[in-house]
Fold this sequence. Notes:
Layout lengths: L20 E6 L2 E5 L3 H20 L5 H32 L4 E7 L2 E6 L6 H30 L18 H20 L7 H14 L2 H27 L11 H31 L21 H9 L6 E6 L2 E7 H5 L3 H4 L4 H4 L1 E2 L12 H10 L4 E6 L2 E7 H23 L1
Parallel strand pairs: 2-3
Antiparallel strand pairs: 1-2, 3-4, 5-6, 6-7, 8-9
Helix pairs in contact: 1-2, 2-3, 2-4, 3-4, 3-5, 5-6, 6-7
Amino acid sequence: MSQEIRLETGAGREGSGMRGLRLGRIGGISITLDWSLLIIFALITLILSAGVFPSWHPQWGNGTILATAAASSVLFLASVLAHELSHALVGRRLGLRIEQITLFVFGGMAHLEEEPRTWRSELGMAIVGPLTSLVLGFAFLYLARIVTGPIEIDPEQPVKMLSTLSPLATVLFWLGPVNILLGLFNMVPGFPLDGGRVLRAALWWMTGDLVRATRWAAAFGQGFAWLLIASGFAMILGVRVPVFGAGPVGGLWIALIGWFLNNAAMMSYRRVMLQQRLGNLPVTRVMHRDPAHMTTDLNIQDFVDNYLLGSSQRVFPVIDEGRLRGLVCLADVRSIDRERRAGMRVGEVMIPLERLQTLSPTDQASEALDRLTQYSVNQLPVVEEGRLLGMVTREDVLKWLSLSRGSANRGESSGGG
């Protein structure tokens, strides 16, 4: 999927947009578990322990059922991580910048810092995820067969075979079909699902136009999303939907997935449109120069009285001896009690330079917008050899886009007369 888009305001901290638990790095890619993942873990565990596994093993105790369900949930989330990791590793081999994977309530997301440059790289990165899930699915079924050995299935009671499975075999027999279904679901040609990205790659190859290919693939994605939403509401009302079944809990989940895919399709198309319009515009064209700044030894109470309260600027560079030392913002000061502010200095509360995301003057405005989105911050400093050249905000980029659109519209009007 394309990278997520958030609108929170921050001061440019590295990773300030990452909520949850950071597990570490695999192949140079940061792995983060969003706290919303607890919802899907609890939901899968509840469904398995309250319905699926008791029907398979009526003779099992509650402890065995709950432990098997929890282990299945953990391994399923590990399978989702493997799916996303395959995207990220292949994407990096194809020259794409992918620094982070986030697992969250709707699955996983490999954060792209840029759109693929060719349809071949799009195709290669998109197709490997579903293939990984399919390989995992068949591998789990193969391992289950090794664990159980030869099994005799009664044609009149095929489900009875499940009651003879051990906890390990039960986990493997459940994980196999689930991963196969995950791979097949992701191949639905609806952007930004993997199948939608495969469709976009094919359309891109046929038309040579990334924007047009994205528009068509996103339209397929929105159509599929609305189908899911309609199916979900039908299930809530008691209608049995082919493949999905019936029931309010499943229906609500299907509708939420549809809502997420619809928003993701719209956001992905808008992102491509913005990148096309920004083109090779250098970041120095959109940054604002000479922002108000201060030194590390400035008293925090003076900073509040003379800078924060008298200015609409929310983030201030901290500069000593002509070099950027860090940033300080309203949120950093707000966490300090009023009686302590007079005895503290800016250098004690600022975000140091080594913890900041920064831009260089050779970066493009589209890259600035991507980083602002990825790290959920509202501004980034433009730095060259330790010297601050300016600051870039979302508003700076959007203002340029608005003015360029106005100029283009006036040019079209005058040219048509």
